[in-house]
Design goal:
Length: 330
Amino acid sequence: MNAIQNRTLGHSGIAVSALGFGCWAIGGEWQDKDGNPLGWGAVDDEESVAAIRRALDLGITFFDTADVYGTGHSERVLGRALQGRRDDVVIATKWGNTFDETTRTHTGPNASTAYARRALTASLRRLGTDHIDLYQLHLGEATLDEAAELRDVCEEFVGEGLIRAYAWSTDDPERAAFFAGGEHCAAVQHACNVLQDAPEMFALCAERGLASVNRSPLAMGLLTGKYAPGGRGTAGDIRTVPPTWLQWFGAGGVPSPEWAARVEAVRDVLTGGGRTLAQGALAWLWARSPHTVPIPGFRSVAQAEENAGALAYGPLRAGQLTEIDALLVA
């Protein structure tokens, strides 16, 4: 084993555990304006709180959420779980999406600077804290003109002590590079996993000294080997009515045969040395770049324990990365 423990968020000096936990799923059920699910199904808040506290005990110090997850509910649950432990953790949240908390509905984007300030004030209140460690723009397709104004307002927030650093959640290297021109931009959050590499983004992070915060590190459950498609009866789960960007699942939440075959192709390599499939997928990300901080989701203490257990194994070996590349090309 080659245990891995810590990373730093860019040039900010903010140290985080090499593994973060993503808090989308614990937001519970919410929907778009057409009634399609945007959450991961019903959740037990007590279990969510217990899972967060167990993660803390296991060395996880980085928690990533967004104001829109569960239309505010994820932030509230995270804030509750971290009461009395604020100084032990690094909190990341996101803004840019408007929502109706009464109907638990996402109502659209808002890229204005005025909304950024309102959103930050509301997130601080829901999280029960006086500052956010990493504040992230949640509009991946915002224009560079909009981003310029929002980057400037983030610098104002830093000066006021409301945030410590900021980032853009986007899969576009050009947008990420633009935001990185700001003094206190510390990271980019982008999709990446063993099935979906991001070489341009890793090159940018190396060049600019940014942290690479990896969402979908387990391909929304496909790389856990435990996702059993339950059809449309799984109410409130985005995977059962997948939007166009969710490529790993088809209608009804059935894993795509093409992507499922790729998982099987690399399963033996990822599970070598005693790792579970999920732990191997996280290990691939750590081996892929020294800047990575994967943020797998969770809804239970058992999931928290399995994901945190990956830290003890550390990254895959270089030879294993090469083997996986060959298997995915074949």
